[in-house]
Amino acid sequence: PDRTDITYFGAGPALLPTDVLEKAAQALLNFNNTGLGIAEHSHRSQHATDIINQAKADLASYLDIPDDYDVLFMSGGGTGEFSATVYNLVGAWVTKKKLEILQQLGVTNEADANQDELVSALKKAVDSELKLDYLVTGGWSLKAYQEAGRLLGPEFVNLATDSRTINNGKFGKIPEESSWKLSKAPAFVYYCDNETVDGVEFPKFPESLAPQADGSGPIVVADMSSNILSRRFPVKNFSVVFFGAQKNLGSTGVTVVVIKKSLLAPACPQPSPSLLRKIGLPIPPVVFTYETIAKNNSLYNTLSIFDVYIAGQVLKKLLNTYPDKVDGQEAVANAKSALIYNALEAHPNVYKIVPDKSVRSRMNICFRVTVNGETDKAESEFLKKGTELGLTGLKGHRSVGGIRASNYNSITPDGAKKLAQFLNDFATNA
Ligand code: PLP
After folding, report:
1. pTM check: above 0.95
2. If we measure between CA atoms, which residue out of 91, 144, 55, 153 comes closest to residue 288?
């Protein structure tokens, strides 16, 4: 088949716009008439810097990212960020705590402090106060929570909420905010805005994490790998937002980190490796150190400029398509997901939507198919018939089974319509 015959609902990597790929194919052979392809140019070339700067500017424009945030392109995927967020924000916590202790010791300069006294006070603070809060609402936040425990030790990681406790051991709901057990002053509160495997999306920014009128509030970290660029979010409420490119932004190979500059040097330099060693905390690998990546405009080491180029082209296309930027794409994403959910709801005898209605994802639509009391057989039949119609990638994640229609930005309204029509036809003929 040709790619025009297929509407691909896979969870990621996702479809890329054909015109972007055609342009990229040309750029791979000969970028801007330089005779060299985009993947062959040095990451130290002006071309690379220009591509990075343009992609950063376009992302900032599309999402309204304020000037006091930086955008980093990194390697290591979303999974790498499960670790990087821990290293970097624990580092920021240590730096702030160190300043507090120096103040208590009555010195302004670290070199003037009694080093044994400083280290012992800091170690005591780490042991008694350091906490990382995780909201576990699906498979990906669970992985991030487990990684934090693996790196630091479980005693430092607080499971502030776990959806499975209110849903018979399964994900699919988000517990009431009033039930969350947040720590007093955590190094951060972490959540996954859209759980790709479980089809659960936070309907909006959690009120209990919102900043106070004076701007103070918890340090919030969010994984937006699977819903970035599909809706507006209050950037100012976050300290770090990260996302892999491979769903709504571009090709697999770069991960984007949007970070508040006040968490980076010079405002908040990372503690030295020797200090971390003395207080028993892990030392971050240099490629995962935001400070180093930021200082080098994402070119500390060889970055896949091709992947940044693709992301840049997708952003240009979004900006050209939607004069009102992310709001325009959000309206389209909402309409597409409503169309699909409505088709599912119209046939409750055949389709059962997995997550609770209040937290249904607009991006990953998870459901079960049952005909004559049989689910496995009906789902095989559903997948087979869908594939015959060019509707592919609909198989659910291997850990949960069922059907998952990933409704990323590259699914056109027409593609969503085709799926809705198929849902109707399949149920009517069942
Ligand atoms: N976070 C979310 C929400 C995801 O959907 C995924 C992958 O699908 C990841 C993290 C992990 O990303 P990666 O495979 O790039 O490490």
Report:
1. yes
2. 91
